[in-house]
Amino acid sequence: MIRKFLFLVGLILVSCSSDDTGEVPDGDTPEQTGLTEFQLEFIEEYHYVTFNLSPTSFGGNLNEKWSEEVKIFLDGGADASYQESVENQISTLNDYMTDGTTLEVVNALSEANVHLYLGPAVDIENLWPDMFSFLSQGSFQGYALYSSSSSNINFGRIWVNNDGMPIFTHELGHVLGFGHASDARCGQNSSFMCSSLSNGFSTFDTGMIKTLYHPDITVGKTFQQLRPVIEELLLSESIAL
Ligand SMILES: [Zn+2]
């Protein structure tokens, strides 16, 4: 079995230097598609985030997501209070997973397919030397790596250096298949996938999670293959923004 590892950059404390200002899709106007400008902007951002077009995120060329229950083990300095915060946050996320994929915290590493470690970076030098080697390339609060098989994400590792929910949610977002948001979506009403962390989810964030984890969105597809499916989800208001 070939298992590819996909590397996703965690939080970089310097601002992103992306000069991608977001192109207007060719030939897609409200008149041609029946979609609103807002919905067309959403599709553009969905492409940017889920196909990892940001220069600071790395992932597959084809659509990827989980097709099994996401079971997270909390390691390191994670205590009962941290677990409660995580469970609250994933409860919110579970409401957005429209294909029945669920997330839960499990009490044993052997049951988990996502391993989270909370603690200072030096703690993962021996645990995850590959991840540790990336941490020297910037100033990070967290980092996530995941692997997939045939575009199905099946294993993730998350390191966070603090017990805040913004960094947890951002790194979990990477493991769920989301890259960094475009600069246009970072500022006011920021996306949870901005390198500068945000609290909560923007309208586009909830729409993107509901879309990626919608049963009509299948893995291993190009954006061009998915675009008509996403347009139909919006036109039918299966995905409401
Ligand atoms: Zn990140």
Sum up the structure in keywords.
8 helices, Collagenase (Catalytic Domain), seven-stranded mixed β-sheet, 241 residues, globular, binds zinc ion
Describe the structure.
With 241 residues, the chain is an alpha/beta fold. It has a single domain, classed as Collagenase (Catalytic Domain). Helix content is 33%, strand content 17%. Strands 1, 2, 3, 4, 5, 6 and 7 form a 7-stranded mixed β-sheet that branches. Strand 3, helix 3 and strand 4 form a beta-alpha-beta unit. Helix 2 crosses helix 7. The longest helix is centred in the middle third of the chain and has 17 residues. It is globular and about 55 Å long. The N and C termini lie far apart (40 Å). It binds zinc ion. Zinc ion binds next to helix 6. One of its GO terms (molecular function) is metallopeptidase activity. This is DUF2927 domain-containing protein.
Please outline what is shown here.
InterPro entries: DUF2927 (IPR021323), MetalloPept_cat_dom_sf (IPR024079). By secondary structure, the chain is of the alpha/beta class.
CATH superfamily: Collagenase (Catalytic Domain)
**Separation of the first and last Cα atoms:** 40 Å
Q: What profile does the largest beta sheet have?
A: 7 strands, mixed
List the total number of helices: 8
What is the gyration radius calculated from CA atoms?
A: 17 Å
Mean pLDDT: 88
Strand content: 15-25%
Number of domains: 1
Q: Flag low-confidence runs.
A: 1-25
Which hetero compounds are present in the coordinates? zinc ion
Shape by Cα distribution? globular
CATH topology: Collagenase (Catalytic Domain)
Q: Could you give the order of the helices and strands?
A: EHHEEHEEHHEEHHH
- At CATH's second level, what is the architecture? 3-Layer(aba) Sandwich
Percent of residues in helical segments? 25-40%
Pfam family, one: DUF2927
GO molecular function: metallopeptidase activity
Protein name: DUF2927 domain-containing protein
Organism: Flagellimonas hymeniacidonis
